[in-house]
Amino acid sequence: MTSNVTGRVVRAHGGFYYVQLDTQLVECTARGRIKLEYDRILVGDRVRISMNPDGTGALEEILDRVVVLRRPPVANVTQVVVVSASTEPTPDSLLLDRLLVIAEATGLKQVICFNKVDLLYDNTVGSLLEAYSSIGYRTVKTSAKAGQGIGQLRQLLCGETSVFAGQSGVGKSALINALDPSFARKEGSVSERLGRGRHTTRTAELLSLDKDTFVVDTPGLTSITLDMLDKGKLSEYFPEIGKYTDGCRFSDCVHMEEPDCEVKRRLSLGEISKERYGNYVTLLSEIEEARLRRY
Ligand code: GDP
Ligand code: ZN
């Protein structure tokens, strides 16, 4: 019996945990001891298992747990793919910036994906994409429908555990299916093989795209608010604003009405976009309102 096998919990159902090893998926149970030590074993957990002679396994230990998302409950997510449609629905830059800020504050890498480029007749996306790329964000244009940009998206996912986020209807599910059409097909066969009942509540799963590359099958970050953020830290989460804050006269400058504000100066020079600054101000006032509600 070996007990040095490590893998990733990709699915949890009915008391069983499905652990993805390099080349095989092992159905595991959790021993009493591990259940006591960790009140909840999460999809995404890195685990050490021991193999039984019949090919099933037992969870022995939960390894390092870094970022844990609450909804969907997944451990060790490393990246967020913020999806915006090029059109239908119209891009919502405030939501985009909000998700980027939440990702940054949570310690997740970010990719911005402009989907549905097949519906576009002008270059609206081009200028949006250019604006975000020039700030330093990694961006990609896709059409889940026409299969465009999917290879490039796959490269951006390489080695990461990514969760998709964005408005409803932008194509998050379509993109996940486009990344690997077998995901959609697998769904049926895996449920049968692994005994997923028809009437059971679905929990999030990790889709294994490649060795060490996973995608959470359920979109996330929707329920997160900015309440927990520190007002003074918000500008750090806007990279092109954060890089000028050292030049402000006051170290606690929030770049609103303060005199000698370097951010406002750069804004007037057009080096920071009005739209991004406007979103910064909106999110800042949200944080302030949340703070006032608490007292
Ligand atoms: P989600 O709510 O973000 O998961 O969005 P869905 O994946 O359910 O897609 C919403 C709708 O947009 C569906 O009708 C999809 O067929 C459609 N859709 C998704 N991606 C594309 C695309 O790249 N081009 C076009 N034309 N339609 C798309
Ligand atoms: Zn300032």
- In helices, the fraction of residues equals 25-40%
Unreliable spans are 185-200
**Global geometry:** globular
The class by helix and strand makeup works out as alpha/beta
Please report the distance between the alpha carbons of the first and last residues: 57 Å
In N-to-C order, the SSE pattern is EEEHEEEEEHEHEHEHHEEHHH
The molecules bound to the chains, other than polymers, are: guanosine-5'-diphosphate, zinc ion
Number of helices: 9
**Rg from alpha-carbon coordinates:** 22 Å
Residue-averaged pLDDT:
89
Tally of DSSP β-strands: 13
Largest sheet: number of strands, sense, barrel closure = 6 strands, mixed
Question: What portion of the residues fall into strands of 2 or more residues?
Answer: 15-25%
Major beta sheet, strand line-up: 10-9-8-11-13-12
Secondary structure layout plus pairing:
Blueprint: E1 5-13, E2 16-20, E3 25-30, H1 32-37, E4 46-51, E5 57-62, E6 68-69, E7 74-75, E8 79-85, H2 93-106, E9 109-115, H3 124-135, E10 138-141, H4 150-157, E11 161-165, H5 172-179, H6 182-194, E12 206-210, E13 213-216, H7 239-242, H8 262-268, H9 274-294
Parallel strand pairs: 3-5, 8-9, 8-11, 9-10, 11-13
Antiparallel strand pairs: 1-2, 1-4, 2-3, 4-5, 6-7, 12-13
The structure holds guanosine-5'-diphosphate and zinc ion.
